[in-house]
Amino acid sequence: MTLDDSTSFTIDDDAVVWSVPTAERAERLASQPLVVVMHGRGSHENDLAGLFPLLPEEFVYASLRATLSGQPYGLGGWTWFTPGEPAVPPVSSVEGSVSAVLAWLDRVEAQFGRAPAVAAMGFSQGGVMSIELLRSAPERFTAAANLSGFVARDAAEGDERLAETRPPLFWGRDVEDPIIAASGIERTAAFVPGHFTVTAREYPGIAHSISSEEAGDVAAFLRAALAPSSSSSSAPSLRPSGS
């Protein structure tokens, strides 16, 4: 991996928002799946933590703060990638943030033990991360939920393995999303069918956000992917602030 020496990619363990207190994590993670939640560009770890009550209560959730401060790039909040062409984040940024999340997951497993299943879930840039984590380390994750995100790279080290196993992927979006460039959608549409078992949903009129219908679909997807014997449920609306 080649990274800009001036850029440090790391997950702040103290900034992670968990759905369960520290004292309960080891016991819960011994039998319950972990869902790693990642916000969008210019947002923060508390944004998608608002989803926790809307998702299956039998899972553990951890909402991460992105690796980079947005301030050097004219943003508030935090970002996963340094600036690049529309829907083409620099590969070094993708690799840096992916490596940081995997290192964080190593620390979680060392402290609390390994969950029976792990899913990656994110909105916009966080949705990009959800896909790219599985492309880099398919053996670490059971499923991914990509909300208004896209495939970032032409190739990744785990692509061949993904093509063999085709783990579950939720891909939700508005076809008129004003934020995500068409090139990113085209790249994603070409890549994911051959590498994932895709649940694709379109939500006209939500623009770059998460609707009540999509939140319910995500909850049902996670139950089916991580605990197939569980029943599905509906969820109210949430509109994240990041992109």
Account of the protein in words:
The chain is globular. The protein has six helices and nine strands; from the N terminus they run E-H-E-E-E-E-H-E-H-E-H-E-H-E-H. Helices cover 30% and strands 16% of the residues. The protein has helices at 22-29, 91-112, 125-136, 159-165, 182-191, 212-226, and strands at residues 17-18, 34-38, 60-64, 68-69, 78-79, 118-123, 143-147, 168-173, 197-202. The longest helix has 22 residues, at 91-112. The strands form two sheets. Strands 1-3-2-6-7-8-9 form a seven-stranded mixed β-sheet, sandwiched between helices. The chain has a single domain (13-226), classed as 3-Layer(aba) Sandwich (Rossmann fold).
Quick tags:
7-stranded mixed β-sheet; 243 residues; two-stranded antiparallel sheet; alpha/beta; Rossmann fold; disordered N terminus; 9 strands
